[in-house]
Amino acid sequence: MDESFLKASEEIGRNFNLIQGAGGNTSFKNDDSMFIKASGYKLKDSLQKDIFVKVNLKKLRESIKQNLKNPLEDTWDKSLGKRPSMETNMHAILPNKYIFHTHCLNTISLLVQNQCQFKISKIFNDLKYKIIQYKTPGIPLANEIKKVLKEDKPEIIFLSNHGLVVCADDIDTALNLTYLVSKKLDFPIRESKKENLKKLNKIASGTCFRPTRYNNAHELAFSEHTIKIASSGSLYPDHVVFLGRRTFVINTKNELEEIIKNSTIEQKLPLVIVPHAGILVPENISYEAEELVLALSKIVAKIPNNSKINYLSLNDELQLEKSNSENYRLSLNSRI
Ligand SMILES: [Zn+2]
């Protein structure tokens, strides 16, 4: 395994603005093989753990070409107990040696705005980029990217309501382009306010909720604008997968109790915003999902007041839930 590739993967994995939880993935191609991050593993562990899977690139590309239902089938060694990322198809069809896919918060913040195309054209007019309309990660997204590859070879791909893909033939270029895009889109965030932990604790006491441990995430609750954006729909895949389809806005303990009473056992308890106080999360929220609470707060904080937002459709949300549960089932299988 290429040491400098692992180092670069670890570096972006440690940057919260680029990668949260097990999101994002990097890959490199070597003749007929491709090494890609395994599903469910974290890029920041690139140097300490063996988190990459070797995929038979030739076979995978052939299967994608033939439009097979599951092109990934029999393209990697299952006995090693790891599955290639669900975004492997996208990496495989891109021609460059190195592909870095990040969930850059600065970039996502722009890619959920209705005006993003216009803004990108002004900021990145000297770079070869493409904007891809939102598609469910996996085969639908790869098929959408395939369409633009017919025209020319982009170095930057903006995935609407999702994230950033950078394509390069050497590691330094891949890293530099990732940082360049992120930096150019690093718009100032709105003024921060102090959370009201006393009020949050009062509402949550005796329930299965608590204030989020990320103090900066509470800022989301201090502007009508950010509350509206965060509670009006789902913005990107990890928003749905980790925080659920609905975010509630409440002001009293009664309202919180009502939410708990009405949620079924199978349902994940939702994120709850208490205006001018902060954010409540279910006590049993996973460490990874709570990182996404902070990510959401940072993303909405960068969206200008007058922006129109493109939300995922109900069908998009259902597709994500479906592929997430399928992914979970496969991950259990691969451990056997
Ligand atoms: Zn992604």
Description:
This protein has 336 residues and is of the alpha+beta class. The chain folds into 2 domains: 186 residues, L-fuculose-1-phosphate Aldolase; 105 residues, no CATH class. It contains 13 helices and 11 strands. Strands 3-2-1-4-7-6-5 form a 7-stranded mixed beta sheet, sandwiched between helices. Strands 8-11-10-9 form a 4-stranded mixed beta sheet, sandwiched between helices. β6 and β7 form a beta hairpin. The longest helix has 22 residues. It is globular. The mean pLDDT is 92. It binds zinc ion. Zinc ion binds next to loops.
What attributes characterize this protein structure?
single chain; 336 residues; alpha+beta; L-fuculose-1-phosphate Aldolase; 2 domains; seven-stranded mixed beta sheet; four-stranded mixed beta sheet; 13 helices; 11 strands; 40% helix; globular; binds zinc ion
What is the secondary structure topology, with strand pairs?
Elements lengths: L2 H11 L11 E6 L2 E5 L14 E5 H9 L22 H6 L4 E5 L2 H7 L4 H8 L5 E4 L6 H11 L6 E4 L3 E6 L2 H14 L12 H8 L4 E3 L12 H8 L5 H7 L3 E3 L3 H10 L8 E4 L3 E5 L4 H15 L12 H22 L1
The structure holds zinc ion.
Zinc ion (ZN) binds next to loops.
